[in-house]
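Example (one chain per record):
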Amino acid sequence: MEKNKNAPWWQGAVVYQIYPRSFRDTNGDGVGDLKGIEEKLDYVASLGVDAIWLSPIYPTPNRDFGYDISDYVGIAPEMGTMADFDRLVKESHARGIKVILDQVLSHTSDQHPWFQESLLSRDNAKSDWYVWAEAKEDGTPPNNWLAAFGGAAWSWHPLRRQYYFHKFLKSQPKLNFHNPEVVDACMDVLRFWLDRGVDGFRLDVANSYVHDEKLTNNPPVPMAERTWANWAHAPRLQRHIYDANTPENEWAMKRVRKVMDEYKDRLAFGEFSEEPSMFGVYAGGMDKLHTGYTFDFLEDWTFKPHVFRKYFDELLMPLEHLWPCVTFSNHDIVRPVTRWGGGKGDDALAKLALTLLVALKGTVLMYQGEELGLPEVDLERKWIQDPVGDLYFPFGKGRDGCRTPMPWEGDAHEAGFTSGAPWLPIPDYHRVRAAAAQEGDAHSVLAHARAVIAARKAHPALARGDIKFVEAEGEQVLAFERAVEGERLLCVFNLSRETAGYTLPAGAGETVFSVGEVKQDGAALTLAGRSGVVFAL
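Predicted structure:
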């Protein structure tokens, strides 16, 4: 295991995702800004994290709240100025925190100058910068592709008398990566920010850069394989292997990696939301993305041991050159405390999930508020702003519930997030979990988050070690070993609400870290519900 001694900084790092609109507002307009992030850098540093990942901060019409970019090399006015950004990078680096930007290269806003020129005619300089196609003879779209946010993935534009492809909203036209000029322009976007000192990128929907040029119909998900999740959302009734997840997408990832390698110690990791079998095609090794994450944990509602074993044993084990990311939460997903526990908060579950997260092999991606044990916010219809919630309310309320503002001070006006009216509400069950309320409590979720991150840094096996799952009786306990040269650890977690037992192997030594109530009688462990322990071996 010599290779782990000189691992790059990001292997085993903890990356803290900030959703800027909801982190801290300093000018009273109800929307978070760059100065607000800078103001809270000491708090972020106190967590012990290695990097921050900022969701989009670029100019945008906010149809998809920053994931519809109208200027790749600017700062959204509501976020601040380029001078604010440069200062944020400088102040982050001064605290030993790296800065990672969200980058959305698959599509732009329909207000981006590139698209505004492209739609004017079929023969202008940017006419082929987006994916345009002829209608069928009866006027219907060219194929059966469905948009991730519902409906057809094609919209008609009368100026060109053609359809354009959008994998998401109709206001998010898809860039044409079959055009070398488009690829070159996107790579120059990466260089612009790298030259300003950013340490890397999280690549939004990195599986969807390159579409099938023949516009082949997507096949259906076989009836026998369909689950509740498929029937809940029509686009999931087809396999997305031609509108995205193509073999050709590999070369796009290689182009990104080539740019990253022009700079020292930079990181590019991708979001892979569909077809996890393509994960290893796009990431890992010396010439693809450094790493990435799938939605296997993010979309899990069971919190069962087999979910974690299957992911590592079946998906990752064959990918020997891929160091993974592990994540339970982000800006698109129901918060894990609610997903796995329900209700308006469960601090025991929050602590257990944080401990498991830092114990698993991979680069940890932690979402703002996860360290406070924040649950999902149950919003009334009048607050829904996310297009997904707007489409499916009340069956589904979209993503606004995980995007509500950070509660800094429970008794302050709007929990200390803003001096004005916040863009989304802050409920009382978030106020009681405000950062200030937890700050002096040694038993709080916040204190626990700091402790487990510190434990990860103190133990090379947790940060950089290999992982091997071991058998446990029943379906409640998840057990695995983490090992690197010079250290071997056994991690045992009871993921259920009920008491469970576990028999320790010979050689189990002192307790490195524990969560919840764990009792030991010789080799016999008794783990209360939502508890776990890490032993030295």
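Caption: The longest strand covers residues 477-484.
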